[in-house]
Write a structure and sequence with these properties.
The chain is α/β, with parallel strands linked by helices and 372 residues long. The protein folds into two domains: 4-155 and 339-370, Quinone Oxidoreductase, Chain A, domain 1; 175-314, NAD(P)-binding Rossmann-like Domain (Rossmann fold). The protein has eleven helices and 18 strands. The strands form three sheets. Strands 3, 5, 6, 9, 10, 17 and 18 form a seven-stranded mixed β-sheet that branches. It has a six-stranded parallel β-sheet with strand order 13-12-11-14-15-16, with helices on both faces. A five-stranded mixed β-barrel has the order 1-2-7-8-4. It starts with a strand and ends with a strand. One of its GO terms (biological process) is formaldehyde catabolic process.
Length: 372
């Protein structure tokens, strides 16, 4: 199999835009899969790489939420075959480590190297003018072609449109799972969701599907507050203080049963507000990212001890990609999950920086890059 070429969006330095350039793509080896990417979602995590909040080896093809068609496979691949439609999982799942074996694929040991750029075995399928080029989360979906490990793809029903399917690779399961799995929302509960972007809006959907009595959204951007009602929000307000008044009135002063933090970043002020909104015995789930070097949670522990409050984090909404991506897409097919409505704007690959500017400006629920 010959070397191919691809056009991709590459980040060379923190603080700069991605450059659109041509790269060489080596043929897939062993358990590697050559993908023809079709759609890629604009997730804030990529923006966190460009601003240095998430540190990765550069240069790096960004993009970790996407859908594709399998172009070719290495000789040891068993999960997919050419022509299959797949959704990319930004956490690979080997199926053999203690985490995968216990049903917690999101903690798979092979996910430890997702920002190093290379595939397992230090394989570097992409190369450019400066040498090897990495791929974010071992995917790099902002590219026409890419080589990934078979552990990073989930085969889906070919009848599902690939544009909406792309969203099931990150934002949808992360948000949905934050409510359904991590927060374990139960029927009749009062839930607050801080942030109504691509993740927060799906946390709203998950909380409502789990039977929440009230879902209160806290979001400073007006158009997102307005949009949240279609996804299941009971009330949408601009700040935590307004949400607190509503929650105390609804609960007779008790507070929210569950609070989900899905803001663009986590700060000490946001985490403190989330804990303050939470009732005795309630749970705060932190889904949003912050720098590894800056504390974003500074609280008196007596508040947790005496009031039995729980604070926990979640990656991927505690989802197991091989199980939950098809399950969520089945809900979409049954019209029990909104996906098209999440897509605010569509972009060509060469417009990816414009898309991220729109995201930073608060103009998107989810932007979608049309690759093919």
């Amino acid at each position: 199999m010959r070397t191919r070429t691809t056009t991709a969006a590459v980040l060379h330095r923190v603080g700069e835009d991605m450059s659109i350039e041509e790269l060489d793509v080596a043929p897939p080896q062993g358990r590697e899969v050559l993908l023809s990417f079709r759609y890629a979602g604009l997730c804030r995590s990529d923006l966190h790489v460009t601003d240095g909040t998430i540190v990765g080896r550069l240069p790096l093809v960004l993009g970790h939420e996407g859908s594709a068609v399998v172009d070719a496979v290495g000789p040891l691949v068993s999960r997919v075959e050419p022509g299959d439609h797949v959704v990319c999982s930004f956490i690979p799942s080997c199926g053999q480590c203690r985490w995968c074996a216990s049903g917690r694929q999101v903690l798979c040991d092979t996910g430890a190297g997702t920002m190093r750029g290379h595939l397992p075995g230090e394989s570097w399928p992409l190369s450019g003018r400066t040498g090897p080029v990495g791929a974010m989360c071992q995917l790099g979906t902002f590219s026409q072609l890419g080589v990934v490990h078979e552990n990073s793809v989930v085969r889906i029903d070919a009848s599902i449109p690939l544009d909406v399917a792309a969203l099931a690779g990150c934002g949808v399961p992360t948000g949905w799972g934050s409510a359904v799995n991590a927060a374990a929302v139960r029927p009749g509960e009062v839930v607050v969701v801080l942030g109504a972007g691509g993740i927060g809006m799906n946390a709203v959907q998950g909380a409502r599907a789990a039977g929440a009595r009230e879902v209160i959204v806290v979001e400073p951007v007006e158009f997102k507050r307005d949009a949240s009602h279609a996804f299941g929000a009971s009330t949408a307000v601009s700040d935590a203080a307004a949400a607190r008044e509503i929650v105390l009135r609804l609960t007779g002063g008790a507070g929210a049963d569950k609070v989900i933090v899905a803001t663009s970043v986590v700060t000490p002020e946001i985490s403190a507000a989330a804990v303050d909104l939470c009732s005795k015995g309630g749970t705060v789930v932190i889904t949003a990212m912050a720098s590894f070097d800056e504390p974003a949670l500074v609280l008196p522990t007596a508040m947790l001890t005496m009031l039995s409050k729980t604070i926990r984090g979640t990656m991927y909404g505690d989802c197991s990609p091989s199980r939950d991506i098809p399950a969520l897409l089945a809900l979409y097919q049954e019209k029990k999950l909104l996906l098209e409505e999440l897509i605010t704007r569509r972009y060509r690959l060469e417009q990816v920086n414009d898309g991220y500017q729109d995201l930073e400006d608060g103009a998107l629920l989810r932007g979608l890059v049309e690759i093919a």
